[in-house]
Write a structure and sequence with these properties.
Elements: H1 2-34, E1 48-56, H2 62-75, E2 80-92, H3 95-101, E3 109-115, H4 118-126, H5 128-135, E4 137-147, H6 149-169, H7 192-197, H8 200-203, E5 207-214, H9 218-238, E6 241-250, E7 259-265, H10 268-275, H11 278-283, E8 291-299
Antiparallel strand pairs: 1-3, 1-4, 2-3, 2-8, 4-6, 5-7, 5-8, 6-7
Helix pairs in contact: 1-6, 2-5, 6-9
Length: 304
Amino acid sequence: MARIVGVVALVLFAALVLAMLWQHRRYLRVRRERVQDRQALLHSPRVFHVVTFLELAPGAELFESVRKLRELLEAGGLAKMVYAGKVAVNALQSAQLAEAFGEGVQWDAVVCTQFPSFEAWERASRSEGLQRALAGFARTYSHGMKRFAGLSLLLPQALLFRRIAQIVSREPSHFPFEPELEGDSVLPADGRLDRLLAERELGERAAVVVNLVLPGTREQRAADRGYVRRMFGLMAEGVHGPMHMGRAVTLERDTRFERVALVYYPGVDYFRRMATSRFYQGILGGKQLGDSQASITVPILGRL
């Protein structure tokens, strides 16, 4: 009997390992093929990431401007650009950034770059070349991110275990999304979803929300945890979720955020169906933060 139990336990363990490898491989494929993300899965704990929001100068062309920035960073060995996205919609505008740059600033692109260390970023930020490249944009804002490789590797596995729990407990599926009732939307009718769908060519298979997050009061944090828990369940079933997460590091001005997160969704059409579903509108009120900059982007690094 003990031998049978041992064999069963071994088989279950082997099945779990295979499932984890399969999960790792499919999320890696998403990162490389859909998100066009060039982040190395393992890296030194000294590396330092910088997320930069870019507003184009009048008459400037998006791809050319971001391409020049990438070439300067990589040709000079200053850093590696691991993600670049065209902003489809600035979904949430930070009150802190509005105060710093004025109301209504519209970022056009967001890039995530990896430097060998914080000291390497400091040297690069003072270099004439980088300052000249950033001067080609109307406005820029950079925020640091201390990204931990181990956490990033564990997130897909956490989603796998959440999915297993859903199957075992026979939780109802989130799909297909049930559309909202007409006239019952909690989303503003300001054309943002139309602008999102206008990016179908670039965002057919992937949309990435770049978040700078400052948690709010104790009550707001409790409500937000409920929102995150429900979204985590959706991500587990829908095979999407965080690509980059880390501790926020202020680099300029007096802005204060606690977390940086780049979260992948399977395309702009998926995001629109989710955002207008009864599920999402039923939990959206729980998303309560002290401040947040959330820009929905579509990948462009493969075209630079």
